């Protein structure tokens, strides 16, 4: 049975999602990944949808909670790109953004080679309580997966 990511909810301390903070989120994630945002009313508050695609079938819901999410480690959401060139271009864009805003965090990794795969990745985090693992996966001859995602 095929499955896709529909959404993830990230919670913040009450009072965090001010109009200014929401605009900072919008500006950063639109510039880096091309994501849009949409303010919505849900559970008696104005939350923010961080939309990963145009039809809003994949999104991150940002909401406030009296028990907000805490992620002091490297908890992350992986974003898979088709090529290492796309990953490298995003890393360079993130680094350029970091020169203007030192609060943007980047963690670079050496390629991980294991079981016929080569994972090329970096982590980036800004304003949200998780990291984004930006990666591509190359396969050695004979190690290609039987099934791959295809977008129409």
Can you describe this structure?
With 152 residues, the chain is α+β, with helices and mostly antiparallel strands. The chain folds into two domains: 7-65, Signal recognition particle alu RNA binding heterodimer, srp9/1; 76-139. The protein is 21% helix and 39% strand. The protein is built from two helices and nine strands, in the order E-H-E-E-E-E-H-E-E-E-E. The strands form two sheets. Strands 5, 6, 7, 8 and 9 form a five-stranded mixed β-sheet that branches. A four-stranded mixed β-sheet has the order 1-4-3-2. Strand 2 and strand 3 form a beta hairpin. The protein starts with 6 loop residues before the first strand and ends in a 13-residue tail after the last strand. The mean pLDDT is 93.
The coarse silhouette is globular
* Number of separate structural domains: 2
H/E topology pattern: EHEEEEHEEEE
Task: State the distance separating the first and last CA atoms.
Answer: 18 Å
**Number of helical segments?**
2
What is the averaged pLDDT score?
A: 93
Overall radius of gyration? 17 Å
Q: Low-confidence spans: pLDDT under 50, at least 5 residues? A: none
Given helix and strand content, the structural type is: alpha+beta
- What percentage of amino acids are in beta strands? 35-45%
Biggest sheet features: 5 strands, mixed
Q: Kindly state the percentage of residues in helix.
A: 10-25%
DSSP E strands, number? 9
């Amino acid at each position: 049975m095929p499955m896709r990511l529909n959404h993830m909810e990230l919670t913040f301390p009450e009072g965090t999602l001010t109009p200014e903070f929401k605009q900072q989120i919008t500006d950063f994630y639109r510039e880096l990944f091309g994501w849009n945002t949409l303010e919505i009313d849900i559970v008696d508050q104005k939350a923010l949808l961080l939309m990963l695609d145009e039809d809003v079938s994949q999104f991150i819901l940002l909401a406030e909670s009296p028990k907000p999410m805490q992620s002091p480690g490297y908890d992350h959401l992986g974003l898979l790109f088709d090529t290492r060139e796309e990953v490298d271009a995003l890393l360079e864009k993130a680094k350029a953004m970091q020169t203007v805003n030192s609060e943007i965090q980047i963690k670079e990794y050496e390629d991980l080679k294991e079981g016929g795969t080569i994972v090329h990745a970096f982590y980036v985090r800004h304003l949200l309580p998780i990291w984004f693992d930006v990666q591509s996966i190359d396969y050695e001859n004979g190690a290609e997966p039987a099934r791959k995602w295809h977008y129409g």
